[in-house]
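queue> pop job 88
queue> type: inverse folding (structure -> sequence)
queue> payload:
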């Protein structure tokens, strides 16, 4: 996730996503060596856990400017991205307009109250988004609700014990609205959160073991895959794969009563 906070919007704060960032932040982050290496490692880890998505209905929570959503679409997914930030969604739509293969739809909305019916998706992804919502329990239950029985949830989020988290906490102490309200968790805490939502955790992997320095990122990136398969200690990014159990999710929300096509129509971002 971009390590910046100056583009937080009032609308995003009111919606409960204190860390929402504009598309310009993503672009600047990916233009740096640190951002290029880090985002590539995180996306590789997520895609490995997602597996084949050809022909599957996939929902990308907190899609931002649509990079992961677009990637899933090019792999054959019937992809939908949802985000609270309208400017990011405009950038996501523009990204798909320049993509030759695949198509995706984008919806403006909050992940704590998803505008989709129960069992609507085969796969749900949530990358660096649960760490930024005020009610992670509700968000996780909503993600589980819209998954079909046997469907997979892939969560990638910010680890607690690493140099990135330490730096971000310090920024929070000195006034960053983004990092003051962010959650940093261990692999065990992520697993408990997901299991309480009615899913069974199948795999936990780490990524990004280097400090937030571009030259070190490039030098240590070749070790990332091996480290991530043996431990999450020191990982700035933790990814968890889980499967929805065949019985009911513990708590249904009001939005589960709303019939809706998973492919947005009138609710799509303009």
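queue> result:
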């Amino acid at each position: 996730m971009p390590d910046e906070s100056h583009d937080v919007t009032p609308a995003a704060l009111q919606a409960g996503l204190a860390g929402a960032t504009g598309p310009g932040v993503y672009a600047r982050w990916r233009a740096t060596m640190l951002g290029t290496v880090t985002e590539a490692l995180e996306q590789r880890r997520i895609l490995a856990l997602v597996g084949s998505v050809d022909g599957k209905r996939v929902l990308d929570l907190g899609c931002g400017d649509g990079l992961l959503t677009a990637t899933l679409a090019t792999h054959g997914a019937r992809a939908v991205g949802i985000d609270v930030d309208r400017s990011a969604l405009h950038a996501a739509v523009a990204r798909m307009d320049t993509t030759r293969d695949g198509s995706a739809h984008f919806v403006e909305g909050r992940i704590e109250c998803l505008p989709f019916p129960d069992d609507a998706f085969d796969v749900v992804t949530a990358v660096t988004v649960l760490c930024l919502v005020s009610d992670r329990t509700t968000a996780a239950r909503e993600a589980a609700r819209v998954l079909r029985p046997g469907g997979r949830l892939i969560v990638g989020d910010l680890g607690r014990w690493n140099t990135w988290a330490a730096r971000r906490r310090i920024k929070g102490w000195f006034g960053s609205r983004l990092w003051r309200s962010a959650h940093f968790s261990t692999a065990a805490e992520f697993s408990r959160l997901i299991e309480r939502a009615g899913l069974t955790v199948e795999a936990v992997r780490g990524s990004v073991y280097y400090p937030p320095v571009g030259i070190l990122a490039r030098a240590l990136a070749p070790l990332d895959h091996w480290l991530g398969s043996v431990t999450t200690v020191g990982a700035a990014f933790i990814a968890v794969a889980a499967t929805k159990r065949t019985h009911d999710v513990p708590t249904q929300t009001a939005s589960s009563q709303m019939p809706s096509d998973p492919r947005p129509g009138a609710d799509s971002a303009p």
